[in-house]
Design a protein that fits this description.
111 residues; Multidrug-efflux Transporter Regulator, Chain: A, Domain 2; 2 domains; MerR-type_HTH_dom; DNA-bd_dom_put_sf; mainly alpha
Length: 111
């Protein structure tokens, strides 16, 4: 596949795909004269995985570890991310409770 095909299929820009290639998240084959870059079909799976992990608020550094990790390491990384998200949700809920209690206090003090 060429970069153009990956852009159309994945929704990432050319620049993002080149960036992922430089980070060694994607493999590229250099073929022909003049040299053209061709990506194997598995690259599309990797791009979809990157997109899903970015949507789950993974950092690019964690995504790189995830893609290069073994299956057991991948489960560990996902659990760590779940814990981070859970802590964030707990903080949000605590803030919501505090705001609700402040609103109740204001309503009690005003006639």
């Amino acid at each position: 596949m060429r970069v153009k095909d990956l852009v159309e299929a994945s929704g990432f820009t050319r620049h993002a795909i080149r960036h992922f290639t430089k980070l060694k998240l994607l493999n590229v084959e250099r073929i022909g004269d003049p040299i053209q870059q061709h990506y194997p079909p598995e690259s599309l799976v990797v791009l979809y995985t990157i997109k899903e992990l970015k949507a789950a608020r993974f950092k690019l550094q964690d995504i790189k570890k995830y893609l290069q990790a073994s299956t057991t390491d991948k489960l560990t990384l996902l659990k760590q991310q779940d814990l981070r998200l859970y802590r964030g949700i707990k903080d949000i809920r605590a803030a919501q409770r505090k705001v609700a209690s402040l609103i109740e206090q204001l309503e009690r003090t005003q006639p």
